[in-house]
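User: I'm putting together a small comparison set for a docking exercise, and I want a reference complex before I start. The sequence is below, and the ligand is magnesium ion. Could you produce the 3D structure with the ligand included, as structure tokens?
Assistant: Of course. I'll restate your input first, then give the structure tokens for the complex.
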Amino acid sequence: MRLVEAVLNGDRLALARLLTQVEQGTPAGLKALDMLFQHTGKAYLIGVTGSPGSGKSSLVNRLVYALRHPIGDASPKRVAVIAVDPSSPFSGGALLGDRVRMRDLAGDAGVFIRSMASRGNLGGLARATVSSAQVLDAAGFEVILIETVGAGQAEVDIARLADTILVVGTPGMGDEIQAIKAGILEIADILVINKADQPGVEEAEQFLRMMVETALTQKDTDDEGKRWSPPIVRTIALRGEGVQNLLDVIQQHAAHLENSGQSQERVRHRLEYDLINRVQERLLARWWGEVAEAAFREMLERIYRREISPCQAAEQLVEVTNQL
Ligand SMILES: Nc1nc2c(ncn2[C@@H]2O[C@H](COP(=O)(O)OP(=O)(O)OP(=O)(O)O)[C@@H](O)[C@H]2O)c(=O)[nH]1
Ligand SMILES: [Mg+2]
């Protein structure tokens, strides 16, 4: 396939085209994924999530810049960004703002930025994100940053697919408490207090530290080597302050995963998620092909009339197809 070859040869236009195919799950996109898959497994995935407006995009922007301009004699990494935009009313403007801020990275062939809109289909979004990351991985991007707004379960699921997960909060965190309730804190490898130029940093840090300690005792593991207490890192993305330190902490986490054997676990988890999703999708499609729409509607009516429970109905509907 010419498009696949072009992507492997670093053609950016081909990459953009292929990502569109892959996001939409077209036959050509799926075929390309099959062909590219053997070239994947090299990229390091960093999930960046947190409440709306906490400065995720600004931070991602700064991280990309720092990865492209490393201090000392480290070589610059090729970096891709997937910005998952939940198409919520408030994010439209923010995305535009992101584009403006991304401008200092424009023209750098070692950077590729992709925005993905959810169009209301969040399950599909997780799959599309995994697939896009695979394409970017095959295309030779060594670090892939995935930004999601940590508002819903699907976004949390997406973030969870990363090797290192950053949860970004701000001082004066009324919203943050909500986000933490949504289980977002449990998935954090690193907690970032961004906008550290604003008042209330100490309180935010104290609060987070308390939450981290509670969460840690809950998921206590016997395996000393696997234990990782999420560090709390302060940043001012607006001025790029604390970003190099954040990068160092990310590297420490990567080293911890490597030394404890957990990096392979994370990769397996990611592949398992992808596999299960695809099996579910296929089974569901097959089932829809076999069950008569009328029979389904009729069953729904019977549930509505309380003649049958959803559980019994599901069993019968699946039985029907099993007998075919
Ligand atoms: N004071 C201050 N403002 C910041 C800082 N970082 C980002 N901002 C501002 O906060 C606003 C939101 O920043 P974004 O980077 O778009 O935040 P986001 O989390 O990506 O937003 P969504 O994607 O819409 O959820 C912008 O006006 C930024 O300029 C910071 O460290 N300090
Ligand atoms: Mg953003």
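The CA atoms of residues 221 and 227 lie 7 Å apart. The chain has two domains: 40-260, 291-323.
User: Thanks, that's exactly what I needed.
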